[in-house]
Description:
The chain has helices at residues 17-48, 52-69; strands at residues 71-76, 79-84, 87-94, 97-102, 105-112, 114-122, 125-132, 137-143.
Amino acid sequence: MQKKSACLKENHKGYTLLEVLLSFMVFSMISFCIPFFMKGFDTIKNEMVPPYYYEWTLFTQSLKRELWNGKDIVIEPNKISFTINDEQITYEKYQQSIRRRVNDSGHEVVLQSVKYFSLSPLPQGMHIELEFINGEKVEKEFFYYYYQTAEEPL
């Protein structure tokens, strides 16, 4: 009869203190780096959100451009409406934003994080007062000029 035996490779080396210290050192280095990564991600997230004055400048420029081409301008305390190419354009406060609508449909947010928004008419223009959620206040005056063409009745 033949004997069959399973021979396992014997390893008497074991898990040494040096390996424990090396593993703990790698674990500690990774653990100490996690807060730096989190801070970096937070910084990137904050940099991705534009400051309020960028949005405010973009909003005022687009409104000014449209007002120059607009007719039949109606200014209400929280809303302005005018006509361009037979389309009714409306800028109004909606919840915590200012939205733009065309022919009373759509929902294009043009300014966010708005706490207070007020419009008041001026001769050949209007005055806007706005306060953002963070307490920053801005205001601007717009002037528009509408000239009638020969085809339009007086």
